[in-house]
Amino acid sequence: MSRIYLSIFSLIILFASMHAPGAHAQTVQRDWTPYEQNKQCMISENFYNLTYRSDGTKYWFIPDNSMATMILKWHVTGDQFLNEMEYVSRDSFAACFNGERECGLPLNYDIANELSQFDVPENGVSTAYFRNPPPASAVRNAMAVVGDCFGSAGEGVYLDELGLTETDLPIDICFRAGQTMFYRGENYRSEAPPMTDAQIARYREWGMLAYYLINQVRNKPDEGATRCGVAPAELIPSFMQFYDDNNYAALEDPVQIAAREAEAAAAAQAAAEKQARETEYLRKSKRERLLARNDYQRFGTLDGCQIAYSYVFGGINRDRLSFIVDPVPDAGISWALKFEKTQAAGQECPPMPQELGDWIAKQDPKLFEAYGAEEEFRNTQPNIWNQNDWVAFVERWMWRNQTFSEAYVQGGNCQAAIWYSRNIAHDWNSFTQPESDFVGLARVFDRWGAPDQALCAAIPPEVLPLARKTWERNYNQVMREKARQQAEWDEANRREAARRAEIDAAYDELMNWQPEYQKQSELRCYDVEETQYGTRQRCFSD
């Protein structure tokens, strides 16, 4: 029962750690205008994600590390700003003090050097400097990107002076523009409002912030935000043209919105009803299987304490197919933890509290399921040596589904279903329960090297139509490829044979070549030995 001990104990520890508050939370100074109260501010307080360090202290994490958002964070967190900055952010922020970036901050190489160090000196110039709020010039510079987010510190500075304007356009338009600016106009440009290269470069920091705010759900200024709050005034004509060209008005028409919402509600209702029918069918099938067991199949060699523990574990992890009645009482969880310890130490079972006993009495013993039985069965390769045992394993895996058996033949239904499950099936969200079970089983068999023939004992009908279609398409493609390859091989062989014949002919001609016979005369004569009278000839007469 060692694995049982780890299970509930780990679950309780995890639950406790998730709900433990930070022991050393630092106070945070805030003085700004939230997004909900001022739509001229692009972001809100929840843009700075509250994060806990390993020692329990908390800090406000900046998602995009832009100069403007860091200046705003300086304004929001006050004298905690430097302590809450990560090294990467500090090193980037140093550009505002060494002359590389114009941020409305004074040139100060000492501050830039300290910000670029991994550990900031405790009594350095930067520590003293950031105890003060950001200067008005830095606030004005940041407002040109984030809008009017600085409360009283931004009084007297108006958006039109900064090249920004409040707008009421769909947030999708700002996202598309920001996405293009994020990629410096190299991607998604055809999907965004038209902008020149100069405009993309000029407003890139605003665009990157808009892209981060909208693209990353956890960084949204408001979960319900659907409108652009602030945008560059120079780009508004282009945004409005994009609004008209892409018929955003139709998307915002109340009648069409109501029709789409009604359609979505009907689809959700249909999906819920389908899920309810499938759940009911699965519960009925599972109930029939559980009721068909005898006592040994139901309880095996478990004693009373192990049976009670299985009930507690099943109650903690119960799902829509569970037959456990009522939540597990707190006394039951405490008893289960004690039971795990006694099991690990080889001691006797602890006494069961009355509250747990009453809860167990409500459960139907005929529907009892031992702890982890199904999970262990599916995750552990069985010690099986023959085909009949593998078939029984497949049938048990697919017990809750309507299935049929099929012969394992080349190109048959079973082979098509197996091929589809291992090569094509990936859209798990669209699978029915039988499809999901069979796809998982086919892949487990492939990993174990188990015989595919056994899979043919329980094929769900749902997997066949698409399996046959994809299999036949693949089979035809394979056959076409084989025919193409065969044609290439035949042509190559023909060319090789012709070349070989040409080489052989040349070789034969070379080997059989003889010099041309030179006739000595037309009289068919030939010379004989030299004499004192000169050369003699002898001729053949006709």
UniProtKB/TrEMBL annotation:
The lineage of its organism: Bacteria, Pseudomonadati, Pseudomonadota, Alphaproteobacteria, Parvularculales. Keywords: Coiled coil, Signal. This is YARHG domain-containing protein. Residues 1-25 form the signal peptide. It comes from the Bacteria. Residues 468-495 form a coiled coil.
